[in-house]
Amino acid sequence: MTNHTAGLRDRALAFRSLHLPGRPLVLPNAWDVASARLVEDAGAGAVATTSAGVAWARGAADGDRLDRERALRAVAEIVRAVRVPVTADIESGYAPDPEGVAGTVRAVLAAGAVGVNIEDAAPRGTGRGPLRPAGEQAERIAAARAAADAAGVPLFVNARVDTFLRGAGGVDDTLERAAAYLAAGADGIFVPGTVDPGTIEELAGGIRAPLNVLAGPGAPPAGALAAMGVARVSVGSAVAEAAYAVVHRAARELLGAGTYDAQTGGLAYGTLNELMGQDA
């Protein structure tokens, strides 16, 4: 086993251990080196990327529009910038078939990340969907699992089920897909699109793996989600959206009224500069 593989294995095991029902891993998703360092500095046990934020920061739209090379270059930069484990949002795998998904996973490991999110929504504009057939998605997850196992790294495969997000099913459909994905080698199940307490409790009780939910403004606090049995709480693109909203407000105010109120409350130059000057 090489030093690189041994280090990845240790980080992967550490990341895996953070998924505890009732004591969830809370992830403010990052999209570049600065946001990742700020998340780590705030005390996060790991850093998760947001595919939307990564795409926007590189001038592309979310939704399988950013190519794999550029997306994983961003992941590698984030891995090098922080000390905690990193998990990568790889959308639907940046590939049309299971073999391509396996190639993406090998690239993720080369970048140094120890977890992935893989969604089952069919890419927009392909005339398919809204979700891939469960059997087809299970093959893609199995390919990801096999690639990680062959590399000797217990990569945490977080299988995203988009039934609620895409209006393609309810609890029963979600549980059925979750079971198929776990059987294919997934380690956790991510169900965005619902923060209803009753629904979350049903999902947590029916899924035999760590449950990840997507939270944000209007959702129950992380502590309440923990009490429902959630093992991972993430916010997707919400933090990036809030950051870009400040840019938008400040620019419109400055170019309109010529005033600066939207710029108040920012982090001090010295604080950010010192954070970015640190070695990971």
TrEMBL record:
InterPro entries in UniProt: ICL/PEPM, Pyrv/PenolPyrv_kinase-like_dom, Pyrv_kinase-like_dom_sf
SUPFAM superfamilies in alphabetical order: Phosphoenolpyruvate/pyruvate domain
A GO MF label: catalytic activity
Pfam families for this protein: PEP_mutase
Protein name: 3-methyl-2-oxobutanoate hydroxymethyltransferase
